[in-house]
Design a protein that fits this description.
about 240 residues; alpha/beta; Rossmann fold; four-stranded antiparallel sheet; 9 helices; binds adenosine-5'-diphosphate; binds magnesium ion
Length: about 240
């Protein structure tokens, strides 16, 4: 995955959520992690990169191809990606299985029967086959996020985008979800994620980008950035969040 951003901004009325961000990832980057203080623009940048909304200004390239700004073309780009957000966003009135089948049929145009076969295979791959018929309320938070991950992976996305996938979970459930994300990385899945789990960011990220007030304050290879924070702000942030 090679991602290039040129002077990308997203402005909501008065707020510059993303403010003139330029970035070029290393060509061999498998996992890019966005970190930084709340309100810094991580979620917004992730949505722009995933094509959920167009930037106000600037250009985003995936492997050299410019992301369209036209809504119809953006939709077809978006379909190639997989998304998972912090609050379990499963459809509450559908079983785990139907949560996977619905996008496969409605968004990806599969017939019901092959969609069900695919959904069952993907649930099995995530060790969730015994939960296929359960409704989201009958699943633990960790299981719900794993179903969410299974749903995001069911159409074999080129890029998986995760926005604080574990922030609403207890520690044990966090570990269960982080393990699955790490397995996907090992299988070669390209991932961009935001997280407040610094240990996880450090271990899973090939490349880290630190965002604050909509701007990139520092970026680089994971090991280097954590060992030698490139700015006082990053050093202070890491010292604060890694203190406990
Ligand atoms: N849809 C929106 N409408 C208006 N303001 C927004 C919207 N999304 C984000 N913002 C603002 O943009 C800034 C960055 O938010 P966000 O990207 O969610 O940061 P982070 O994920 O780092 O906490 C915040 O000030 C937030 O209030
Ligand atoms: Mg956020």
């Amino acid at each position: 995955m090679k991602l290039t951003l040129r002077h990308v901004s997203k402005i909501y009325e008065e707020t510059r959520a993303v403010d003139d961000v330029s970035l070029e990832t290393m060509p061999d980057s498998g996992v890019l992690v966005l970190i930084g203080p709340s309100g810094g623009g991580k979620s917004t940048l992730l949505r722009l990169i995933g094509g959920l909304e167009p930037p106000t200004n600037g250009e985003i390239f995936h492997d050299g191809t410019l992301l369209p700004t036209d809504e119809i073309e953006l939709q077809s780009f978006r379909r190639k990606n997989g998304f998972l957000f912090q609050n379990f966003n499963l459809f509450p009135h559908l079983s785990a299985l139907d949560n996977l089948i619905l996008p496969l049929t409605k968004v990806h145009g599969m017939e019901k029967s092959p969609a069900e076969d695919t959904a069952r295979q993907v649930l099995a791959r995530f060790d969730l086959e015994q939960h296929a018929e359960k409704m989201p309320v009958q699943l633990s938070g960790g299981q719900q996020q794993r179903v969410g991950l299974a749903r995001a992976m069911a159409h074999q996305p080129g890029l998986l985008l995760l926005d604080e996938p574990t922030s609403a979970l207890d520690p044990e459930m966090k570990a269960e979800v982080l393990d699955v994300i790490d397995e996907l990385r090992q299988e070669g899945q390209k991932i961009i994620l935001t997280t407040h789990e610094m240990g996880f960011a450090k271990n899973i990220g090939d490349e880290i980008v630190f965002l604050s007030r909509g701007k990139i304050v520092g970026s680089g290879k994971s090991a280097g950035l954590f060992q030698n924070p490139p700015s006082p702000e990053i050093e202070q942030f890491l010292a604060r969040v890694m203190k406990w």
